[in-house]
Amino acid sequence: MSDIKQRRVDISSGLNACLTYYPANSTMAMHEHEGHQLSIVLSGALAESSSGVQQQVYTPSLCTKPAEFGHANQYGKQGTLIFALNFSKQAFDEYAEGVALDWHWQPLTTKPLLQMIKQSVKGIMINNDPFQQQFLWDLLAIRQGSTVTTERQKVAWLLKAKQSIECSPDNLNLTQLAVELGVHPVYFSRSFHKHFGCAPSLYQQRCKVSRAMQLLSKNKMLVEVANDSGFSDQSHLTRLFKQEIGFTPRQLKQFITG
Question: For 44-61, what is the mean pLDDT?
Fold first, then answer.
């Protein structure tokens, strides 16, 4: 795991924020964190397992993990970008007294909420903005919803559709994909959203961003990254990066390759 790129910001005694890029297909064996952690998948995907249970996680998702919770990770085909808030037990009690954490993955689907999270992450990691306790409360409030559905609960044609989108280097025709899978395009879109938390077109867009992230890690020129990951031009790449992650490609390239 020597190719991991990480930037850490110490916020206060017992609290730090980390932005971490895990290379494509990398793994992390069973481990635990000394303190409590809240993490957000900004790009890519991962599988996280503990005690025989595995969660398949997609962008964007929020995770809460209590201190000393054993887990292992397998990171996605295009790498994974994760923002994390790491609390000592004492610091978490000071910031969120009376809140008990469990292992919980929650998809993030509300646009205003996503925008708030991206602004807060960028403020902490790039602009050195002071940490706002309300940001923590907002994240803790999100986890009240349902957990991520496991892969075993999804039907075979949906998994095939997801894999086809992930593996296509170009802009795959989703209507044609639905026809090839033998389902109506409307049913395809509705079922995909139900099982994966977003429309297939949005998932396709996020896969392109993840693919571009992997190319950025190889220190390629931004024009080349845009072309090779299926964007119409560099401006399109920049626009979607800011929309999906909250950072520009240039900022992330400096982070990953610096």
Answer: 92
